[in-house]
Amino acid sequence: MPDHLIAPHGGRLVELISTPERRRELLGRAARWPSWDLSARQLCDLELMLGGGFSPLRGFLGRTDYESVCARMRLADGTLWPIPVTLDVPDAVGCRLGPGAKLVLRDPEGVPLAVLHVDDAWRPDREAEAQQVLGTSDEVHPGVAHLRRRTGSWYVGGGVEGLGRPRHYDFRELRHTPAELRAELARRGWDRVVAFQTRNPMHRAHLELLVRAARATDASLLVHPVVGHTRPGDIDHYTRVRCYRAVMPSLPAGRAMLSLLPLAMRMAGPREAVWHAIIRKNHGADHFIVGRDHAGPGMDRNGRPFYDPYQAQDLMGRHRPSWGSGSCRSGRWSMWWTPTPTCRRTRFPTEPGRASSRAPGCGASSIRAVRSPPGSRRPRSPASCVAAVPPGPSRV
Hints:
By secondary structure, the chain is an alpha/beta fold. The chain is 28% helix and 14% strand.
């Protein structure tokens, strides 16, 4: 792995594809094991898991890790992890599985993609999960609706051995595993990378934000849109990718790259923002733009937003000391973000070169949170901060 890129979450990229010899052995025995055809959301989870996008996970969460993640946003060993990644199955499958069992995971066409070595099978409290992870039981929230209507009654956890990756027939040249993306970033000589998460087409304000972020952090840009499951009613990814391609020539020449992320979003607001940052860290980005109402699903049944507009930035700040430690070219690193200076008259952000905010103990500056005063009718920045992992003394 290139030594000048940020270390993956947990210190090592966890790829789960088996060796050719092991793959032949597992396929030879798979016919004797029960199998499960993955849903579209489960297929996205498995794809990221196999490639290391969910590092340090080595499989679907078991019960101990699941309960710890729901309650305190951490795996049982204390590693920061905000979203439970579980494999749900119906009664007919779950009641037949127990510790030591094997379950073959197949794509919708029946192609075996992985073998799950079962450690746990249990009936979760999905109402408690909705309250803890999503912060609501309102079924207007798409995450709550999914838990109640489309989630199986059993969760199955355990380690995964990959047999092959899901096949895609669209935009193949824009799809990269974390290892592939890291290799490309290293080939380009990029040692500072700002990642931009989006599930919508980009507009001019996004473009301005990205240019300012690159200037303020002295970094290159990774446009990393989600092309898995997003919020119901979103524009399809085929259209959006064409929009992203049209925008790319307007970004700094030689300093911007487009790559697609097969993530199934949960629309979990602040928790999901932390999850998105961890995933981009695994892909080699050491800065991440956190948007206003990041990963928010909109309004509840009473017309109120599910999450406060800047709740995601606040949560990122609270968990700043918990991003783990690793090595990069300049030594230790830590997570940080602070407010951006704004013009007192216009309430717009000042130019990064005129005023900047520095993290204690490091020499890097970054664009930060931009907030308009209550009642202001002036347009706001579409994103509110850049969470950065610059070189500097560890705070872990």
